């Protein structure tokens, strides 16, 4: 039995939760995957997968074996990359995990520059959350906003978002532009629900030593960012979104920010997460350098009036599970 190939098949099948998907990714047949993994199980004297029509699920023994095998394969891949880097162009598939809005508005527009430099590297972008996704093991690196807590991953902060309260010019014309944060209580605010299920309806503002918290309300709530964005562009209300991801809308004057003399709190940093030994893989290292430079450039292109302040700590609703962000404020009273 080709033990190395068997381990590669096993780890890929575990990541993809399917022999069929693993075969497609490795460009081999499904019977080849099944045969070699079955031979591996027979040699180990243990079942690594529970098989069903819906796919494969790791057994307890399979989980333990995966934790032992993955670092070995990653070290071998890093060694291969290091030896071959001097004599060959970087190549292979780079799997990136990023939320759709960050990929669409920040990363993808810059990818042609990366491809022009490294045309032998294929990019696979997936909307995978490192906190909850079972597919996280298949990702080479993550670009994610917020305050992640993966102790087994290197976490580098590469950018800082700035949240803006925006609306379409037609909405401001009809309802007036707020002069103070508390004026937002008289407006329709379009609200976002995060992955933890918290409706982010507490908008907190700071100006110097002055802090103002506003529990906003509106007729629309969604866990899909583009739903609230499109509603705002259509003139249906005020939305709170990151400046880096609405740059095009601001330039086209489809959205106009208000209260720019105030700083919206809870603005999330942008983080790069990867396994420690992945830094030695050429294509991963090149993309780390590329995306770090990219967000530095995006921040430098900000209007001076939209400059991001110092990194912010996690908000209260991030530390505890609330149905509404405003409940965190009430709990402190």
Question: What are its keywords?
Answer:
39% helix; 12 helices; alpha/beta; five-stranded mixed sheet; single chain; Arc Repressor Mutant, subunit A; D-Maltodextrin-Binding Protein, domain 2; 333 residues; 3 domains
Q: What features would you describe in this structure?
A:
- Helices cover 39% and strands 21% of the residues.
- By secondary structure, the chain is α/β, with parallel strands linked by helices.
- It has three domains: 1-88, Winged helix-like DNA-binding domain superfamily/Winged helix DNA-binding domain (Arc Repressor Mutant, subunit A), CATH 1.10.10.10; 89-161 and 268-301, Periplasmic binding protein-like II (D-Maltodextrin-Binding Protein, domain 2, 3-Layer(aba) Sandwich), CATH 3.40.190; 163-266 and 310-331, D-Maltodextrin-Binding Protein, domain 2 (3-Layer(aba) Sandwich).
- The strands form four sheets. The chain has a five-stranded mixed beta sheet.
- Helix 1 (3-16) crosses helix 2 (19-26) and helix 1 (3-16) packs across helix 3.
- It is elongated.
- Mean pLDDT is 85; it is low at 307-312.
> Can you tell me the number of structural domains?
3
Form type: elongated
Determine the N-to-C terminus distance.
66 Å
Helix-and-strand structural type:
alpha/beta
Helix content: 25-40%
Main beta sheet: 5 strands, mixed
Q: Write down the overall mean pLDDT.
A: 85
Low-confidence stretches: 307-312
CATH class placement of the largest domain: Alpha Beta
List the helices and strands and how they pair.
Layout: H1 3-16, H2 19-26, H3 30-44, E1 49-52, E2 55-58, H4 60-85, E3 92-97, H5 100-107, H6 111-117, E4 121-126, E5 141-145, E6 154-160, E7 163-167, H7 169-175, E8 189-192, E9 202-207, E10 210-215, E11 221-222, H8 225-233, E12 238-242, H9 247-251, E13 256-258, E14 263-264, E15 269-274, H10 282-300, H11 316-319, H12 325-331
Parallel strand pairs: 3-4, 3-5, 8-11, 8-12
Antiparallel strand pairs: 1-2, 5-15, 6-15, 7-12, 7-13, 9-10, 9-14
């Amino acid at each position: 039995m080709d033990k190395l190939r068997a381990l590669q098949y096993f780890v890929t099948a575990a990541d993809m939760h399917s022999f069929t998907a693993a075969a497609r990714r490795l460009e081999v047949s499904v019977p080849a995957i099944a045969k070699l993994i079955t031979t591996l199980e027979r040699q180990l004297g243990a079942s690594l997968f529970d098989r069903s029509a819906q796919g494969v699920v790791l057994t307890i023994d399979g989980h333990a074996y995966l934790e032992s095998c993955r670092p070995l394969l990653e070290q071998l891949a890093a060694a291969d990359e290091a030896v071959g880097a001097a004599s060959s162009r970087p190549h292979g598939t780079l799997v990136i995990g990023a939320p759709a809005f960050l990929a669409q508005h920040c990363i993808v527009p810059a990818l042609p520059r990366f491809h022009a430099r490294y045309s032998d590297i294929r990019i696979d972008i997936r909307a995978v959350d490192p906190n909850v996704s079972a597919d996280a093991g298949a990702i080479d690196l993550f670009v994610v906003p917020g305050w992640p807590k993966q102790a087994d991953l290197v976490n580098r902060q590469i950018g800082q978002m700035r949240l803006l309260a925006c609306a379409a010019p037609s909405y401001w014309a009809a309802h007036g532009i707020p002069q103070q944060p508390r004026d937002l209580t008289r407006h329709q605010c379009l609200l976002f629900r995060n992955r933890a299920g918290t409706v982010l309806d507490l908008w907190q503002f700071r100006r110097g030593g002055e802090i103002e918290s506003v529990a906003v309300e509106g007729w629309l709530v969604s866990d899909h960012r583009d739903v609230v964005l499109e509603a705002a562009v259509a003139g249906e209300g005020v939305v709170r979104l990151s400046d880096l991801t609405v740059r095009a809308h601001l330039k086209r004057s489809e959205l106009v920010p208000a209260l720019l003399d105030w700083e919206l709190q809870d603005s999330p940093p942008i983080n790069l997460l990867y396994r420690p030994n992945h830094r030695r893989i050429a294509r991963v290292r090149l993309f780390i350098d590329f995306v770090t430079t990219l967000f530095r450039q995006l921040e430098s292109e900000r209007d001076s009036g939209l400059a991001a302040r110092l990194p912010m700590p996690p908000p209260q609703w991030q530390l505890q599970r609330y149905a509404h962000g405003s409940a965190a404020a009430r709990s402190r009273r």
